[in-house]
Design brief:
Elements: H1 8-25, H2 29-36, H3 40-47, H4 55-65, H5 95-98, E1 103-110, E2 118-128, E3 133-139, E4 149-153, E5 161-167, E6 170-176, E7 185-194, E8 200-211, E9 222-224, H6 229-243
Antiparallel strand pairs: 1-2, 1-8, 2-3, 2-9, 3-4, 4-5, 5-6, 6-7, 7-8
Length: 254
């Protein structure tokens, strides 16, 4: 046995506690592994008894689950549940109350780098059980290093949905109206645009998020120019933001 491996009996008890927590919270092993910052392979082998839990892995799992896994002082039946509601600053919502937002969305905004072009990518919204909140992540971006991820706020007071990125104090915010009957969400994005040289300029743009029910490979992503087939399909979604009053864009006197 290596120095960091736990005794076999304790490792078996931890495996049982983890399996029960996964079942009780309807949490996938992949999601738990991601939350604990370990590989799913490591988690699978430990749960199957093919390797023992290490102290470091156990501590990470405890942090991800928000409950102790070691010692007789914390019987399984009395282990605390994960919080059932999002933090107050995100709207104090329950998963059941926001399940209708979960899913994948084709996301559209004007291109900041080419006139009249549309920038298209995918956004996924999912429940993060260890942190008890909706989170979002972006993919299929032409500028992949700048893909965003963060938390979703759904306050009752405004009826809006907010996708919030806060990276070391640098914030980006998408403000969206509640979904239409087709599940579409419209609003605006506030972010930073790369200007001249290294200068960053505040920018605001209309934003449309369309439920992505197309088969793999059925969507066009990237910078969509007016002469591309997908442009005629995507353009009306962005036009709806202004035409249907989902967001207002004001300009001062010229």
């Amino acid at each position: 046995m290596s120095e960091t491996e736990l005794p076999e009996a304790q490792s078996r008890a931890i495996a049982q506690a983890v399996r029960e927590a996964l079942a009780r919270r309807r949490l996938s092993r992949q999601a738990l592994a991601d939350g604990a910052r370990i590989s799913v392979s490591t988690l699978e082998k430990a749960l199957a008894g093919r390797r023992r839990f290490t102290l470091a892995t156990t501590i990470r799992l405890e942090e991800a689950l928000g409950q102790p896994l070691r010692g007789p002082a914390a019987p399984l039946a009395r282990l605390p549940e994960a919080p059932r509601h999002a933090p107050e600053e995100l709207g104090s919502y329950s998963r059941e109350g926001v399940a209708w937002i979960e899913g994948r969305y084709l996301t559209l905004r004007p291109s900041f780098g080419a006139a009249d072009a549309i920038f298209a990518y995918r956004t996924e919204i999912a429940w993060d059980a260890p942190r008890s909140r909706l989170v979002f992540s972006e993919a299929e971006r032409l500028d992949a290093p700048f893909a965003q991820s963060g938390s979703v706020a759904v306050p009752n007071q405004s009826g809006m949905i907010y996708l919030v990125t806060n990276w070391h104090g640098q914030c980006r915010l998408a403000v969206l109206c509640r979904p239409t009957i087709q599940g579409e969400m419209y609003g605006m994005l506030t972010t930073l645009h790369a200007g001249r040289g290294t200068q960053l300029t505040p920018a605001c743009a209309p934003l449309a998020m369309i439920p992505d029910r197309a088969e793999a490979g059925g969507r066009a992503y990237g910078r969509i120019a007016p002469d591309q087939p997908a442009y005629a399909q995507y353009r009306p979604y962005l036009d709806r933001v202004r035409e249907d009053g989902y967001a207002a864009f004001f300009t001062g006197p010229s």
